[in-house]
């Protein structure tokens, strides 16, 4: 019996490699080689020549520039990291709540789901950029500039809540409060699209029998969530936390914008020297958060 | 008795009301830009200068849509989007499931290293990989073997695959296309949630891992396949970065939207659209609406399956 099991394990190992073999080739060709190349750029001067990119090794020159002479780097670096603490829990909780609501049966659900799907379509496309460049009072202010990644924050200019609120004649303090609240909500809800869809998908995989059993036992909705839904969803929560962090750190933020602009300006070495320390820190942080969540949630139920 | 029934009914109505308020508050924020785009897109030029017209035009027209259609070369760009982006989107939906199954369900020595590379491939933004990749595509080579061959014999076997469909299909097939790492990770989390007993039973019945994958895993993963399909199609549809960097003469819709102002001006200077009304503000908004409409329709068509698949998973699990 033991022998046979060892046999199966050996076969399984071999099949494991069979399943992932093409992907290993892909990782080597299209991820590892480019990453190593880009890493090498940070230690060298890169020049465009007719034969392609020519590199000369210069040691730590670019890192010195970034850390010592570029004054904003450490500030941007820290503010990017601190956004994790504020945004992550709210985004995860809000999208979980919205997914639970959207998963209920009510009239107009199809429409509601369509509306909450809008960020998935719009936020990742250039449409967002066109809208942010579209000033409501003056029509188009500037042509859509290329390589310019703007975020949902500036979307407020399009919505023009300020003008809407002025019409309501609220007292000044309240006006500011409502405006600030709407602004935050706006940014949050526009970054929840993918997370909501992942949660809705996760909710579909929970066997209906579990809820039926719960009903027979007479548990409350609150207990139902904590004893059935959340444990069954823990992997998806982990996935959503991971996705949210990746999105927060690698798609948005001042530092990423700065790096993207310097890549468009073909300053490869400097952008490489800027991004690698950031990725080191971000990688550690993501690893840490995932580990903590894994320890707290997965162990308990497995 | 009737009293408690009444209370339960009131409570239910109260919950519905709360839900409606909650959803409407958020929905307003989400739907506002779309209403804005629609309102802008039907305005005529004089409306944009008329202070009395804030929202809705006094003489709505669909002329903007015509301008947008011509400027974007819509049909042609749509065909490009389908051949370059959407086909690789569909390829990724399938191959990433295979690779994720290998990583989620098998134990082998290199697995920890591979997991590290998977996370790395998700973390590193595409723009950082693209510049080295373009050189890679221009002289397609496997680990420098063909380059070495060239140095020895002088015969260059390296092919230039830029501007062909291969620049999109090749990485997609290998699971490292647009967001490929993320799709593998999503699949993995869902596969890990499937009960082990299913596969073990199939193993004991003598089905190999490949057969198990196709006859057990795929049929019970409807929801996650659908989710990845939606994300893959939307992100490929929206992708302008790869389309800009990899190609010079096949423009996709996303590329057109990214540079919409330029293309409207271009259509106007080459007299494809009438001069008098060509440059007003409605056309870019109409273009945006025409760009987001197809994925929205696709989603509306697919989203009902999010409900239908509950029972299927229930039976299998």
Spell out the key features of this protein.
heterodimer, A: 302 residues, mainly alpha, MetI-like fold, two-stranded antiparallel sheet, two-stranded antiparallel ribbon, 13 helices, B: 317 residues, 74% helix
Please tell me about this protein's structure.
The complex is a heterodimer of chains A (302) and B (317). With 302 residues, chain A is mainly alpha-helical. Helices cover 75% and strands 5% of the residues of chain A. Chain A contains 13 helices and 4 strands. Chain A has helices spanning 2-41, 61-69, 73-102, 109-122, 127-132, 156-159, 161-168, 172-190, 193-204, 208-217, 221-250, 254-264, 268-301; strands at residues 44-49, 52-57, 134-135, 139-140. In chain A, the strands form 2 sheets. In chain A, strands 1-2 form a two-stranded antiparallel sheet. In chain A, strands 3-4 form a two-stranded antiparallel ribbon. In chain A, α1 (2-41) runs antiparallel to α13 and α4 packs across α9 (193-204). Chain A is globular and about 70 Å long. The model of chain A is unreliable at 135-158 (pLDDT under 50). By secondary structure, chain B is mainly alpha-helical. Chain B has a domain at 74-250: MetI-like fold (Orthogonal Bundle). Chain B contains 17 helices and no strands. Chain B has helices at 2-41, 45-49, 63-72, 74-105, 111-123, 126-138, 145-153, 166-173, 180-193, 196-204, 209-217, 222-238, 241-246, 253-258, 260-269, 282-303, 305-316. Chain B is flat and about 70 Å long. At the A-B interface, α1, α3, α4, α5 and β4 of A face α1, α4, α5, α6 and α9 of B.
Layout: helices, strands, pairs:
The complex is a heterodimer of chains A (302) and B (317).
Chain A: H1 2-41, E1 44-49, E2 52-57, H2 61-69, H3 73-102, H4 109-122, H5 127-132, E3 134-135, E4 139-140, H6 156-159, H7 161-168, H8 172-190, H9 193-204, H10 208-217, H11 221-250, H12 254-264, H13 268-301
Antiparallel strand pairs in A: 1-2, 3-4
Chain B: H1 2-41, H2 45-49, H3 63-72, H4 74-105, H5 111-123, H6 126-138, H7 145-153, H8 166-173, H9 180-193, H10 196-204, H11 209-217, H12 222-238, H13 241-246, H14 253-258, H15 260-269, H16 282-303, H17 305-316
